[in-house]
Amino acid sequence: MADIDIIKDENIVYKKSKVLTDNVMHYCPGCSHGVVHKLIAEVIEEMGIQDKTIGVSPVGCSVFAYNYLDIDWQEAAHGRAPALATATKRLMPDKYVFTYQGDGDLASIGAAEIIHACNRGENITVIFINNGIYGMTGGQMAPTTLVGMKTATTPYGRDVELNGYPLKMTELVAQLPGTCYVTRQSVHTPATVRKCKKAIRKAFENQDKKIGTSFVEVTSTCNSGWKIPPVEANNWMVDHMFKFYKQGDLKDSEKDNPDDYKKFIE
Amino acid sequence: MGELKLMKGNEVIAHAAMRCGCDGYFGYPITPQSEVMETLMLKKPWETTGMVVLQAESEVASINMVYAGASCGKKVMTSSSSPGVSLMQEGITYIAGAELPCLLVNVVRGGPGLGTIQPAQSDYYQTCKGGGHGDYNLIVLAPASVQEMNDFVDLGFELAFKYRNPAMILSDGAIGQMMEKVELSDFKPRWTDEEIQKISGSWATTGKTADREQHIITSLELDSESMEKINHRIQAKYRKMEEEEVRYEEIQCEDAEYIFVAYGSSSRICQKSIEIARAKGIKVGLLRPITLFPYPTKAIAKLAERVKGMLSVEMSAGQMVDDVRLAVNGKIPVEHFGRLGGIIPTPDEIVEALEQKIIGGK
Amino acid sequence: MAKVKGTIVVDKEKCKGCGLCVVACPQDVIELAKEVNGKGYNFAYMAKPDLCIGCANCAQVCPDSIITVYQTKI
Ligand SMILES: Cc1ncc(C[n+]2csc(CCOP(=O)(O)OP(=O)(O)O)c2C)c(N)n1
Ligand code: SF4
Ligand code: SF4
After folding, report:
1. Would you write out chain B's pLDDT as a tens digit for each of its 362 residues?
2. Lower Cβ count inside 10 Å, N or C end of chain C?
3. Euclidean distance between CA atoms A254 and B209, whole angstroms
4. Does C51 score more than 70 pLDDT?
5. What is the number of other CB atoms lying within 10 angstroms of the CB of residue B244?
6. How far is the CA of C50 from the centre of ligand 3 (A)?
7. Residues of A whose CB is below 8 A from B65
């Protein structure tokens, strides 16, 4: 049993962020969406920007992100979140604007919007949940589905002849001069959760510096779509997804081009 | 008294936007309306009024930028022509579903498909009968002059904010490209943050402050009972518009035995046709709908009680004629005349059609 | 023995029994219960409360943010 003596407010070392609502998340058990929501909420709380943050939710499992983060939200049409974020940031440059998008939303139907928002160097933060599948519609192939991976629309495994290759959207946007920070993270262990939070924080702080688009991919699991229980799904992700989707920073203007970067923020 | 200028209809849209306190324009080039964005880019209103102007990567993006700007309580707009407006339909229904105000301009060209770049009125169905999915309507203003291109920008925003519903100026390539004398509106400043709070502070996404609940802009509601309620609320707005916002013009209807019903460019030609017809002894008048939604159904029904027939003149295969027929409800003959493919009918052709289809047809 | 002592409180009714906290705990404190909560999930609980050091690893990985962590020096 929990030790009653310790359970006092002054002893709390970790509790739910105030920016999270009390609504029970509709996500499947163990879904990475919940962890990433929490990290965004914590970053918003720690930066003290709840009243200045506008989220743009996608179509996908996270369409209801607005039920969980207690900030103002715009719910976009499938794939269009970067267009919404573009206009919102340009019309209200002092706000922190972020999109939250799945891989179907961002890499398939919304490929044009994300490429162009990144290419214009919109001062926004993009959170990209790459779980290699369409969760919400019942586990169909996503552009990011690995070769050989079985989904509802690739029942025999993704075949490149039939379906083409998995799309590394994060590598793609890293090539664009408009992006200032592009990183690939995950949230499957306590250590990666902490690292991912730092990345998200940096991606939000970059909006102050007006140096372009910050793009955080979170390589994720969809245990329902993958038909693998949560703990094993994390292991499967490490063994398979990480081989193709290499973890870590792809671009960080601050580090990669310190001189350019200084010029930018001056 | 505003400034008098000789200008193209499309240019006037841009000037009217800058002068009415518009916060943002998002567009994508397409003939015959590209002058709207070109004029804005030339005038650089971001340096004067602070208006944001952005060339988007597509009409899909531009309409979604409008969706976001409207979500923030800002006065935002886009303009396009038929193929581009087709691409925008998803965004338009989201905007209507989320009950947001914005201004859309369609400078119509002939279709279907890529069609022609010449003027047409063949997007009436798309504009007034849906376009996108779901039960919604746009507030539709049909300018018949360059002056009205100016006036309807301000009016469109006013109605859009009054009803929290997208408004569309349904123009055509002729009026967009036409040079005419115009009295530009006086400059109005953009709304301040405080004004936006007053006007849209109960719903706009301006940042959740400690003193209020979060604001969520969405058209999603999975619970059917709630979704039906939302639909009823939206429909109630349309019924109110039908009561309060119908605008039309009657020309020489007092003694008329026959009526042309025509909007936009066609209504201008019909005025010439009236002269020709009257010279021949045919007493014809014109009912010009100014709002295509809400439609002047009652005015047409009233005329139907005392005239012998109506001819709906449109540069389409016959779209608005449906609404004329619904209004007339079988009391008198109603026929359609129009040219397709970007051809503007001549005044004589119209009189001939009246004689053959309505007068002779009796 | 640890120099700090921790404990966690799991909002049992909101737990979805995903088990991510179980594997995240370096001290093997947490297990999923044999019985189920109101939603039918085998909820997480402290099987070995004495071993908890209050590191908050479990809470950080919990997708549903339902673990509160307490820690005190001993
Ligand atoms: C225009 C349009 N096409 C298709 C859909 C159906 N749809 C809803 S969610 C979704 C896929 C979402 O997948 P992803 O972005 O990977 O997010 P996840 O659910 O996996 O988090 C699709 C195809 C839609 N809502 N709108
Ligand atoms: S379907 Fe997949 S992505 Fe959606 S909530 Fe379930 S686990 Fe998460
Ligand atoms: S991680 Fe959270 S939801 Fe999952 S079993 Fe542990 S307490 Fe329950």
Report:
1. 689 999 999 999 999 999 999 999 999 999 999 999 999 999 999 999 999 999 999 999 999 999 999 999 999 999 999 999 999 999 999 999 999 999 999 999 999 999 999 999 999 999 999 899 999 999 999 999 999 999 999 999 999 999 999 999 999 999 999 999 999 999 999 999 999 999 999 999 999 999 999 999 999 999 999 999 999 999 999 999 999 999 999 999 999 999 999 999 999 999 999 999 999 999 999 999 999 999 999 999 999 999 999 999 999 999 999 999 999 999 999 999 999 999 999 999 999 999 999 998 65
2. N
3. 32
4. yes
5. 11
6. 20
7. 83-84, 86-87
Q: Is residue B214 part of a domain?
A: no
**Angstrom distance (rounded) from CA A157 to CA B147:** 62
Are residues B186 and B262 located together in one domain of the fold? no
How much distance in Å is there from the Cα of A107 to the middle of ligand 1?
11
Question: How many residues are there in chain B?
Answer: 362
Judgement on whether residues B324 and B177 belong to the same structural domain of the protein:
no
What's the CATH number where B326 sits?
A: 3.40.50.920
C32–chain A Cβ distance below 8 A for any pair: no
pLDDT of residue C13: 96
B64/A90 touch (CB, cutoff 8 Å), yes or no:
no
A 112-171: CB under 8 A from B: 112-113, 115-116
pLDDT value, residue A1: 47
Which CATH code of 3.40.50.970, 3.30.70.20, 3.30.450.70, 2.115.10.20 fits the domain covering A27-265? Answer: 3.40.50.970
B150-162 per-position pLDDT tens digit: 999 999 999 999 9
CB contact at 8 A, B285 and B310: no
CATH architecture of C4-69: 2-Layer Sandwich (3.30)
Is B76 inside a domain boundary?
Answer: yes
| Kind plus residue range of the DSSP H or E element containing C70 | strand C67-73
Within chain A, strands assigned E span 12-14, 53-57, 72-75, 96-102, 125-130, 133-134, 140-141, 179-186, 213-219, 248-252
- Does the beta carbon of B206 lie under 8 angstroms from any beta carbon of chain A? yes
A105 touches ligand 1 (CB under 6 Å): yes
pTM to 2 decimals? 0.96
